[in-house]
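User: Sequence recovery, please. Input:
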């Protein structure tokens, strides 16, 4: 029996068609393909999740790789990916990372740099960069920004690395993580995503890819994937889709969130959503996203705002436990927020797009634009200081995050301010010292 199986297997192999190479150039391309395939399989741990529906992404990755990155050259290059919020800069950067990371000695993707506080956060980013580049990086301790700069320069100047800095909006962030071309070894590539072209110019980054909105066909396909779970709309909905695409201007984030919001809705609900969008003209990203937020249940709104202000990037299961202690029933509502593409789970952590996070914080700020003490949530360190150091605490405050820049003065507590915060359900202190 075994002999027959062996014979059958050998016969099957013998009948396999080969790959005919007509010249030396084809041979080298064929071998390169094999090497890349094996390298990808050996480095699966390097790969980043890009998008559930990566519409229009392939040709953009090819454009950047071909015209700006040019992996084969030995010069050190810094490349900027420029575009407005929600246009897909981070998604493109992740796809580029996945396509070329295996060709470098080491690689590092630092996401959401703009969300870190100015000084203490930059030190943490320097530590993260070093820990990802070096296997023993976990033992490396960075005490301050200058020390981090010296460590990066000393350890990376002879190493061929791929470094992606995502969502940079301060020049000091660039200077602290990729201050100059000579910090890196020959053939290194540093890719920076940002909304600020002037910052790139000031840092000497002149190779820039401007990320444009999706064209009509791409926008149509992406919206349909989220609104109907397929490439084309359901019968009778094409005109609705065309109108929604016009209103959302080819912005991938808007198309994703609005499309997900409309999935499974009735025709009358589509009509109502269309009217709401038209009434917000001239529209902006905030107003369009706010329409989706306004239609959430009360628990969904509370969970969304808490994540935006306090829990973005935290361990998923830990956040569930905390929100459950508030009585928000997160096990029921968080899956619905994920379905609506308002939040997502990545590497066991709870994440949210920058613009959605900014919108959540703006919603809280608008509760009382001039008086922080009348807002439901306090997260900005200057607002927290004002409430704690003066007699201005109120029963409107439900949750507080104390996260001061490193080296800030001691906060002097006003006992009266604390006494008045009678509805406080959450308090987190990350970097502050109190004196009553």
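Assistant: Recovered sequence (436 residues):
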């Amino acid at each position: 029996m075994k002999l027959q199986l062996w014979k059958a297997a050998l016969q099957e192999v013998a009948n396999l068609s080969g790959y005919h190479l007509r010249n030396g150039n084809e041979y080298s391309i064929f071998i390169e393909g094999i090497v890349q395939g094996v390298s990808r399989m050996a480095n699966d741990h390097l790969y980043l999740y890009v998008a559930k529906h990566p519409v229009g992404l392939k040709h953009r990755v090819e454009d950047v790789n071909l015209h700006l990155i040019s992996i084969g050259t030995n010069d050190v290059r810094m490349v900027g990916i420029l575009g407005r919020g929600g246009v897909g800069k981070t998604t493109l950067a992740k796809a580029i990372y996945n396509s070329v990371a295996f060709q470098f000695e080491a690689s590092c993707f630092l996401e959401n740099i703009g969300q870190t506080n100015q000084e203490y956060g930059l030190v943490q980013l320097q530590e993260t960069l070093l820990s990802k580049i070096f296997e023993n990086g976990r033992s490396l301790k960075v005490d301050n920004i200058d020390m981090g700069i010296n460590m990066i320069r000393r350890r990376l100047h002879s190493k061929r690395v791929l470094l992606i800095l995502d969502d940079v909006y301060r020049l000091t962030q660039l200077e602290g993580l990729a201050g100059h071309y000579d910090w890196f070894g020959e053939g290194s590539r540093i890719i920076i995503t940002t909304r600020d072209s002037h910052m790139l110019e000031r840092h000497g980054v002149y190779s820039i890819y401007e990320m444009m909105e999706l064209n009509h066909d791409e926008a149509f396909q992406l919206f349909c994937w989220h609104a109907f779970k397929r490439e084309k709309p359901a019968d009778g909905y094409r005109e609705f889709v065309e109108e929604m695409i016009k209103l959302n201007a080819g912005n991938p984030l808007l198309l994703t969130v609005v499309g997900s919001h409309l999935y499974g809705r009735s025709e009358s609900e589509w009509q109502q959503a269309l009217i709401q969008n038209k009434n917000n003209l001239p529209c902006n990203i905030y107003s369009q996203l706010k329409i989706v937020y306004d239609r959430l249940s009360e628990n969904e709104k509370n969970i969304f705002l808490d994540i935006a202000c306090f829990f973005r990037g935290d361990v998923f299961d830990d956040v569930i436990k905390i929100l459950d202690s508030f009585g928000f029933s997160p096990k029921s509502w968080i899956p619905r927020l994920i379905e609506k593409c308002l939040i997502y789970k990545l590497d066991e952590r709870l994440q949210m797009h920058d613009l959605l996070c900014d919108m959540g914080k703006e919603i809280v700020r608008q509760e009382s634009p001039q008086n922080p003490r009348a807002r439901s949530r306090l997260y900005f360190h200057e607002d927290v200081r004002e409430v704690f150091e003066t007699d201005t605490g109120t029963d409107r405050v439900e949750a507080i995050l104390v996260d001061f820049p490193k080296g800030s003065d001691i906060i002097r507590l006003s006992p009266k301010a604390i006494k008045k915060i009678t509805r406080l359900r959450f308090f987190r202190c990350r970097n502050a010292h109190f004196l009553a």
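The CA atoms of residues 265 and 273 lie 10 Å apart.
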